[in-house]
Design brief:
Structural class: alpha/beta
Order of helices and strands: EEEHHEEEEHHEHEHEEHEHEHEHEHH
Strand content: 15-25%
Shape: globular
Number of helices: 12
Length: 344
């Protein structure tokens, strides 16, 4: 099978096409023919071993310090079940699925074996494979922060910083679904997009500072790690929560302190610890009922994954970047952001 591998850490050029042996499912596993995957913001960090100091030791121990133990990246996917193990009961051959590979990675390949109980579910019927492949990392992260950690409720006022990113576009749609009044913060070029996916108000950070307001929010969700903790805490209602996907030691200490002694909370989490299969079932339902639409910025063929990494690392990505592994979906040949959100 074809796969993109990397044998050393470095720039995108370390990603190379290779032929690997096609896996065979064990009795309790399924073999998925992958149609699409994605390049998340975390993938370039794994490729280059560019992690915050607090994470370098644990990441190195798990995945290798000098060279990667897992040569095939890719964490979210969509595809078709091609074969099942003798003990598998939840899936059948030809089932269309989407999901998360976990710490085994491996979605930058034509095939992937996963245990039957993996974080995987039947694909939303109304989504293309390229769209479904982006329905995991961003949406599950946003769901974990907003619902499981932030305890979002109907009527809450929520500010989402980085509203045009992968987690941000998911957070806007989910917060709107939960009945919140949503304020998104993004650049000028993404204002109409953020409005189109449900934001009640949008602040253009290139023209005004979102802190300069008398408004107070029940949740301030920084999806990109670029806000000031002190300033954002001042924006909160008395029982408000400041949610952070990117955090350091001082944020960890603040989270512990506020959890014990303050009504306003700093909330951090390794969100994937909170992901469950039931969440994929929930997201599938939202997508099929028209309450959620993945935002896909660009589409790349598998052979151009290095180019996709370069684009993601540039910081210009809006929503998600999908990678077509097999098939001839129109999204794999030419894609546009406006098409991705036209039906939202």
């Amino acid at each position: 099978m074809k796969a993109i591998v990397f044998k050393k850490y470095g720039n995108p050029s370390v990603l190379q096409m290779a032929e690997l042996e096609k896996p065979v499912p064990k009795p309790g596993a399924v073999l998925v023919k992958i149609h699409a995957t994605s390049v998340t913001a975390e993938d370039p960090k794994m490729r280059s071993f560019d992690h915050p100091p607090l994470l370098k030791l644990p990441v190195g121990l798990m995945f290798g310090f000098r060279k990667p133990k897992q040569p095939v990246l890719g964490i979210e996917f969509s595809g078709v079940v091609e074969a099942i193990g003798s003990k598998v009961k939840s899936y059948q051959v030809n089932d269309q699925v989407f999901g998360y590979t976990g710490l085994s990675f491996g979605a930058y390949a034509e095939y992937k074996c996963l245990p039957e109980n993996a974080l995987m579910h039947l694909k939303p019927q109304n989504l293309a494979f390229t769209e479904a492949a982006t329905m995991v990392n961003g949406p599950l992260s946003a769901l974990a922060y907003l619902k499981k950690k932030g305890k979002i409720e109907k009527g809450h006022h929520v500010l989402i910083y980085g509203a045009s990113g992968s987690v941000g576009t998911a957070a806007v749609q989910l917060a709107k679904y939960f009945g919140a009044h949503v304020t998104g913060v993004c650049s000028t070029k993404n204002i109409e997009l953020v409005k189109s996916i449900g934001a009640n108000e949008v602040i253009d950070y290139t023209k005004e500072y979102f802190i300069d307001t008398d408004k107070r929010y029940d949740i301030v969700f920084d999806t990109v790690g670029k806000t000031s903790m002190k300033e954002c805490m001042n924006l909160l209602t008395p029982n408000g929560k400041y949610l952070l996907t990117e955090f350091g030691l001082r944020h960890m200490l603040a989270a512990m302190y506020t959890s014990l002694f303050r009504r306003k909370k700093v909330v951090i989490a390794a969100s994937n610890f909170y992901w469950e299969k039931e969440d994929l079932v929930f997201l599938k339902g939202l997508a099929e009922k028209g309450h959620y639409k993945p935002v896909v910025d660009r589409y790349f063929p598998l052979a151009d994954v290095a180019e996709a990494h370069t684009y993601v690392s540039s910081g210009r990505k809006v929503g998600n970047v999908a990678v077509v592994v097999c098939g001839d979906e129109h999204e794999g040949r030419a894609g546009s952001l406006m098409k991705a959100v036209a039906d939202t």
